[in-house]
Amino acid sequence: MSETTPKPAPAPPVKKSILVLGGTGFLGPHVVKAAVARGHTLTLFNRGKTHPGLFPDIEKLQGDRDGKLDALKGRTWDAVVDPSGYVPRIVKLSAELLAPNVGQYVFISTISVYKDPFPIGGDESAPVQTLDDPTNEDVGKNYGALKALSEKAAETAMPGKVTNVRSGLIIGPGDPTGRFTHWPSRMADGGEVIGPGDGTTPAQYIDGRDLGEWIIHAIENQTFGTYNALGPGKPITMKAVLDRCNEAAGNKAKITWVDGKFLTAHEVSGWSDMPMWIDNTGEDAGFGTMANARGVAAGMKFRPVLETARDTLAWLETLPADERAKVRSTGIKPDKEAKVLAAWHAAKH
Q1: Which domains are assigned to the chain?
Q2: Taking the CB of residue 303, how many other CB atoms lie within 10 A of it?
Q3: 198-250 pLDDT, tens per residue?
Q4: For an engineered disulfide with 98, which of 88, 102, 151, 301 has Cβ 3.0 to 4.6 Å away?
Q5: Which helix (H) or strand (E) holds 33?
């Protein structure tokens, strides 16, 4: 082949039939959109309560994962995506029912399955949490352990046919938690903003659209096994993330970096008051360092955080005022931020 001969176009994906258990929350729509863009056939199974008007042209089956699965009986799909499984008993119900007629079960898990403390640079072989009483279904207290048991429930039902996707912080348009959204929206308000720590703390996350696209990529390629699903492709600091968020908002804000111990002394909590950030000292030294090489090798890609920040701000503008206020309720409150900044400046003089 000469240098001027164009390379042949990649073969189009083999069309798949995909069942999504849910599909109308945050990650689900990104999976659906990625699948539709690639020409696959979708079916959504849910209670019809969350955003029921989404995807009017896609087949919807109504039921409840907790025992009301009749609509799934006798149906065949190439793959199922499960972004809504939190309790092993319930995951077992759907996985066992679907096992004879489904070729792949993609279970959306979490890096919270790993035992504390997170190992520095830990990969998918790191030990996971356990539960003394596996019948305890208190998701609030046992989230990580229940997710780990849910992974096992799926694998037991469909041995060798499960893709466990251990996601980190999922961010971007559609995120109802505000955990990333706090930063670009706060920068858009302008003024002085607390930057937690000294800016060198590592950050990890994945745009929901990138995760949705990789899930479909994994189905197209029948990628099985367990994968940490978090980026970016190269290590990034909290300073770089906040600088890009400020850039997306027009560089209206002035970021003042405040020592982690000072924040703790003034009752400013990592992750809640300061989303995406934990002071990575002591037992938290592994925060933001989880390995993603296995996912990258399997085709996982990550868009620039600047793009995510810009698109998040644009999405916020489309929301009604009450919904926008709810999303923005995460993170430190303005009056508390102002008091802590004043105390910081006073302590430095």
Answers
A1: 17-167 (3.40.50.720), 173-203+234-285+304-347 (3.90.25.10)
A2: 17
A3: 999 999 999 999 999 999 999 999 999 999 999 999 999 999 999 999 999 99
A4: 102
A5: helix 27-37
